[in-house]
UniProtKB/TrEMBL annotation:
Database matches in InterPro entries: DHFR-like_dom_sf (IPR024072), RibDG_C (IPR002734), Riboflavin_Biosynth_HTPR (IPR050765)
Natural source organism: Streptomyces melanosporofaciens
UniProt-listed GO biological process terms: riboflavin biosynthetic process
A GO MF term: 5-amino-6-(5-phosphoribosylamino)uracil reductase activity
Ranges where the Bacterial bifunctional deaminase-reductase C-terminal domain occurs: 2-177
Name of the molecule in the record: Dihydrofolate reductase
Pfam families named in the record: RibD_C
């Protein structure tokens, strides 16, 4: 079954909205390598409508201009791009199509198709839904050492928790943390009495 990986730029206080307004001072070769690696094994991009519009408004022109990021732009253009939207859309960027059906069912079917990995970039509403349905295999968070203090956060308020298991971590020279998580089993219930046995004792 194909693996789905989501990558997000996120601030220390959990903001994922408008990273173009706070992210770029922290972009260096380490982050460039991490971003490139997130697409390395993927031949399909799953995108929300807003993220797709942002990508389609920038990357085709960058590919045509032939600048230093034209190679990455071509990689995005060549990939199969599936857009999660309830609206009928007309696409001008090559290899783009609409995700058909309810998201959870359609993504489950997509994971069962032959092919490489499936990558998400941004598309917070899609990431939330995939987490809720247990369909996201890896969540890559590039945590920036800045409190943005306004904007949409990755996790909205709800009555349920989202347990995660840390797969790997790395610290960039800029102070950015690259954290990779997978979904975990529910943690179960515990109280202070359960936790206090792990506190340091005076006789130790």
């Amino acid at each position: 079954m194909r693996k789905i990986t989501a990558s997000l730029f996120i601030s220390l206080d959990g903001v994922v909205e408008a990273p173009d307004q706070w992210h770029f001072p922290y972009f260096n070769d380490e982050m460039g390598a991490a971003v490139d690696a997130s697409f390395a094994t993927a031949d399909t991009l799953l995108l929300g409508r807003k993220t797709y519009d942002s990508f389609a408004g920038a990357w085709p022109d960058r590919e045509a201009e032939g600048g230093e990021d034209a190679g990455f732009a071509k990689k995005l253009g060549d990939a199969r791009k599936i857009v999660a939207s309830r609206q009928d859309l007309t696409f001008t960027w090559r290899n783009s199509e609409l995700l058909k059906g309810e998201l959870a069912d359609a993504v489950t079917a997509l994971k069962r198709e032959p092919g490489g990995d499936i990558a998400l970039s941004g598309s917070v509403s899609v990431v939330r839904q995939l987490l809720a349905h247990g369909l996201l295999d890896e969540l890559h968070l590039l945590v920036h050492p800045i409190a943005v203090r306004k904007g949409m956060r990755l996790f909205d308020e709800a009555d349920t928790t989202v347990p995660l298991r840390l797969l790997s971590s790395a610290t960039f020279r800029t102070g950015v943390l690259h954290l990779v998580y997978a979904l975990a089993e529910p943690t179960g219930e515990a109280t202070y009495d359960d936790a206090k046995v792990h506190l340091p004792r005076d006789d130790q």
